[in-house]
Amino acid sequence: MRVGLYPGTFDPITLGHIDIIRRAAALVDKLVIGVAINRDKGPLFPLEERVAMIEAECAKLSEETGTEIVAHPFENLLIDCAHEVGAQIIVRGLRAVADFEYEFQMVGMNRALDASVETVFLMADARRQAIASKLVKEIARLGGDVSPFVTPLVNDALKDKFGR
Fold first, then answer.
1. What is the C-alpha to C-alpha distance for residues 44 and 23, in angstroms, rounded to an integer?
2. Residues sharing a CB contact under 8 Å with residue 161, sequence separation 6 or more, in sequence order
3. Which domains, from first to last, does the chain contain?
4. Annotated binding-site residue? 39
5. Which of 63, 69, 100, 127 is the most core-located residue (most Cβ within 10 A)?
6. Taking the complete model, does pTM exceed 0.85, yes or no?
7. Of these residues, 41, 60, 127, 164, which one is catalytic?
């Protein structure tokens, strides 16, 4: 069984993330969405809410693709998380050259820790390249319309967070 791990903070999950998940699901038998517990980033949504949003969105994708997709919170090294879930592949989405530079360093470190776990890069769909969770949160905080960037479920959650 080919198991892939798509890690991120997903604060919140966006249409860009969902695009990568859908495409990654075609490459593996099981896709684990690694939800990073990163206290340094100070997420807007607590872990439980991020996991719930991911599970709701991925249930639809799992049905569509026929691939098992599960959320898995983690707070350890990415390579250790890959071992925990039995992943042979780490999936990363790239939006721009700046993403590649950071990801290139991460791949090097992960390969030094365990060369048997491959990293696969998927380019963001051209229509989704500008979407970043950080920007989505900022637009929502300032009262802007984020519906082009997130699902209705996430849009409602953002409105609730910012009292709109």
1. 27
2. 44, 45, 140
3. 3-126 (3.40.50.620)
4. no
5. 69
6. yes
7. 41
